[in-house]
Amino acid sequence: MKKYIVLALWSFITLGATDITVAVAANVGYVIEPLIKAFHETHPNTKVNIILGSSGKLSAQIKYGAPFDLFMSANMKYPDVLYHENLAVSKPVVYARGALVLLSKKKRDYNESIYVLEDADIKKIAIANPQTAPYGEAAKEALVNAKLYEKLQHKLVYGESVSQTVNYITMLVDIGIIAKSSLFSPHMRHFQESKHWVELEESLYTPIDQGMVMLKSGESSTDVKTFYDFMLGAKAKEILKSFGYKVQ
């Protein structure tokens, strides 16, 4: 993931050639490298530039004219808005469904699932910003539905994206709620299920359907359409599934 650039406001650096540019939600950053590697097995001449960021910020930049060809969001809301504002040329489609997990760098007893957050030794809890990051929105919803949000609100620390939230958990805070996919990156694989992390009950939050749209900049590009089709194909689904996503 270190070779990819997290987009900050309008400033970004492209990676290599610039055949197509794909704006990618931060939670997908953990799986995008193997996806592109698989894509290049059959399309070696198509260069794919990846711009990572929170879905909300990427969506805002698209509205301001950022020259992205494809948008892979962490939810359906932002792609839907872009489509209805005529900034996307394809209807949003679901390419994956994500899941939430609790993660702590310290081993914990997760028998109480989300209610472990009430433990006295937990002083700070990280989630992504609910205003711009769909996984943060889902995390807040889970806390509200578990009737923990008001009780724990003063302990919450907000990351700008899922990737920043992961950094907070591994370095600064006691525990947090993140995308399950982040646990499958090489530097996270030492965290053990039921010891360091546990998946939250899906009943606590609205399903995280991740949406993809082709944007006006990529409308006439066959390379963009080829990558779009790849992301909906069997090979991409196999890779996404191996990173903890659910696919149809």
Ordered list of secondary-structure elements with their pairings:
Blueprint: E1 5-6, E2 20-25, H1 32-42, E3 48-53, H2 55-63, E4 70-72, H3 77-84, E5 93-98, E6 100-103, E7 125-128, H4 134-145, H5 149-152, E8 156-159, H6 162-171, E9 175-179, E10 197-199, E11 208-214, H7 222-231, H8 234-242
Parallel strand pairs: 1-3, 2-3, 2-4, 7-8, 7-9
Antiparallel strand pairs: 4-11, 5-11, 6-9, 6-10
Please outline what is shown here.
With 248 residues, the chain is an alpha/beta fold. 29% of the residues lie in helices and 20% in strands. The model is unreliable at 1-17 (pLDDT under 50).
Question: What does this 3D model show about the protein?
Answer:
This protein has 248 residues and is of the alpha/beta class. It folds into two domains: 5-97 and 209-242, D-Maltodextrin-Binding Protein, domain 2 (3-Layer(aba) Sandwich), CATH 3.40.190; 98-204, D-Maltodextrin-Binding Protein, domain 2 (3-Layer(aba) Sandwich), CATH 3.40.190. It is built from eight helices and eleven strands. It has helices at 32-42, 55-63, 77-84, 134-145, 149-152, 162-171, 222-231, 234-242; strands at 5-6, 20-25, 48-53, 70-72, 93-98, 100-103, 125-128, 156-159, 175-179, 197-199, 208-214. The strands form two sheets. The chain has a six-stranded mixed β-sheet, sandwiched between helices. Strands 8-7-9-6-10 form a five-stranded mixed β-sheet. Helix 1 links the parallel strand 2 (20-25) and strand 3. It is globular.
Comma- or semicolon-separated keywords:
D-Maltodextrin-Binding Protein, domain 2; globular; five-stranded mixed beta sheet; alpha/beta; 8 helices; 29% helix; 2 domains; 248 residues
